[in-house]
UniProtKB/TrEMBL annotation:
Protein name: Uncharacterized protein
Length: 316
């Protein structure tokens, strides 16, 4: 039998990277069936599927989206599924109290200090259970004073994270401590188990020079350009919650480019988060949706680099 890792092995494994879903079940279902239509059935059934994070907030169906994702391993037992944490999922998990403790005897509360100048404007959560909550949980369930998000041109949905629809999908009003009781245990486990980074060796990509064998690093926002990559990966694998804001999950400009040291050996860095589609060399940013109702949810399929959207009409 051929060694699947051998470069002479038959076809390279199909890898599907799916952008931010943000509570839009219908978009996820349409995207999934479109992926099924465009990928050879055998390759689809054994694909590596990497979800790039941000399953919750903005859209109306967070609860149903998580149910859909939880069902995938039994519906597609030969696929491998990787569920990355997005900054929104991290904040949801923080509110539910399912993040790992900070360690070294530190408390989550210590992480508030650095950002407390924003507390009033962002209206941090002060309800039951807030006393030692990870900063992002308080921001997530808080009530933002300004109604309008000038950058996005949309109204905030409850909090700076637009978490209102997530609360409502579980049948409770935004900011209610009852959410901690009504979220099913398997959803809490799902959020607790999300990884902050995923590394995959020998992922193939089609380029002008033919098939390229690369390493792949998947992380919600990206890796910081100015920091040692090994140290960043170690921190992300450990899910170190002593840091109140995880740049690899929520950074912007500082995580846009591939760190220089990764360019020596071909490394794909794939992310969602940025509210746009950007493909430049081996830097793949797949978040066409940005959580906005009228934008599509996109996925990229490797090695072909084919883009698939929930809005594609494949009946033509």
């Amino acid at each position: 039998m051929a060694d699947p890792n051998s470069t002479t092995a038959a076809k390279p494994r199909v890898v599907i990277c799916i952008g931010d879903i943000h509570g839009y079940l219908a978009k996820l279902q349409n995207l999934w069936s479109n992926l099924q239509s465009v990928i050879n059935p055998e390759e689809f059934s054994s694909a590596l599927v990497i979800f790039l994070g941000d399953y919750c907030d903005r859209g109306p169906d967070t609860k149903k989206v998580i149910d859909f994702l939880l069902n995938l391993p039994s519906a597609y037992p030969n696929q491998k599924h990787v569920f990355l944490s997005g900054n929104h999922d991290l904040a949801f998990a923080a509110f539910l109290g399912v993040l790992p403790e900070p360690g070294n005897g530190a408390s989550f509360k210590e992480g508030w200090k650095e950002y407390e100048v924003n507390e009033e404007r962002e209206g941090w959560y002060k309800g039951a259970g807030y006393e030692n909550m990870y900063l992002q949980g308080r921001r997530w369930a808080g009530t933002i004073k300004v109604r309008f998000n000038a950058t996005k041109g949309t109204e905030y949905k409850g909090s700076i994270y637009d978490a209102g629809p997530t609360f409502e999908s579980y049948g409770v009003p935004h900011g209610s401590a009852d959410l901690m009781k009504v979220v099913p245990d398997e959803h809490k486990r799902f959020l607790a188990d999300l990884v902050w980074v995923h590394e995959e060796e020998n992922v193939c990509i089609e380029s002008e020079e033919g098939i390229k064998h690369c390493k792949l690093i998947a992380v919600h926002a990206g890796l910081e350009k100015a920091k040692n990559v090994e140290e960043q990966l170690k921190f992300l694998k450990a899910k170190d919650t002593r840091v109140p804001k995880v740049e690899a999950l929520s950074g912007r400009k500082n995580v846009w480019d591939i760190p220089k040291e990764l360019t020596e050996k071909p490394t794909i860095v794939v992310s969602g988060h940025h509210g746009k589609l950007h493909i430049e060399g081996l830097r793949l940013i797949i978040d066409e949706g940005g959580g906005l109702e009228n934008n599509p949810v996109a996925a990229i399929v490797l090695p072909s680099m084919k883009l698939v959207r929930d809005t594609d009409d494949l009946t033509k």
